Amino acid sequence: MKLAPHLHRLGNDIVACYLVDTDDGITLIDAGLPGHWRDLHRELRSLGKSVDDIRGLVLTHGDTDHIGFAERLRKAHGVPVFVHAADAVRARTGEKFQGAIGPRRLGPMLGFLGYSLVRKNGLRPRYVGEVTEFGDGDVLDLPGSPVIVGVPGHSPGSVAVHVPLADAVFVGDALTTRHVLTGRTDPQPAPFTDDPALAMSSLDRIAGLSASWVLPGHGAPWRISPAHVGDAVRSASEPGAGGSQK
Fold first, then answer.
1. How many percent of the chain have pLDDT more than 90?
2. Closest to 63 (Cα-Cα) out of 101, 104, 97
3. Can you tell me the distance from the alpha carbon of 43 to that of 47, in angstroms, rounded to the nearest whole number?
4. HSE-CB for 49 with a 13 A CA cutoff
5. Using CA atoms, how far apart are residues 87 and 107, in angstroms rounded to an integer?
6. How far apart, in whole angstroms, are the C-alpha atoms of residue 200 and residue 214?
7. Rg, Å, the chain Cα set
8. How much is the average pLDDT of 21-39?
9. pTM here?
10. For 105-114, which contacts have Cβ atoms below 8 Å and span 24 or more sequence positions?
């Protein structure tokens, strides 16, 4: 799905990843679930492009619902996979601290599991055999010149990826606009977060970035200035805050 010039989304509000299309090639942000491989090829065909046009895949963190087709892309097509050094082991092995799950509702939770495990083949994650590590503040030599901003909390190596050309900040699970376990659809903390307090404070680290899109790994694309993200998520997380349900 095309969101804006240079900017496309794969997947849906349950699990999403992104494609940045430039004259110099394509940068992918996250790799969703294994079954998003077909979505990737369908989107590439719509652009008149192929996997050979992909120059790199940048992971916002190393969880299995973000590394989906990464190893297939790396092994079969030689596309390098970039991840923060603090999440490199997680991307290569699946090792994960058991973070806070938070509230749950049966319907949305079953919908998430059905989509992830059955429809998109998430029962058999393929970890990434080789990664290229980066650090906070790095500018990657990839199309769109992605800028790395560390937002630890969901995981130690969670990052936001700022691509000025796409007018976007990709935030992974630093926040969500659709809680996969409750169905709540306002901006809020993501479930399965290692350190919720740190994740909340880390949102202030993107406040100075210039962008019109804040794009999570779960939920609808969010049109907002990064300067307002932290306050909006904190407000929605206050006791008594509601939020729509699906």
1. 82
2. 97
3. 7
4. 19
5. 31
6. 15
7. 16
8. 97
9. 0.94
10. 105/181, 105/182, 105/183, 107/183, 108/179, 108/180, 108/181, 108/182, 108/183, 108/246, 109/180, 109/181, 109/182, 111/14, 111/183, 112/14, 112/180, 112/181
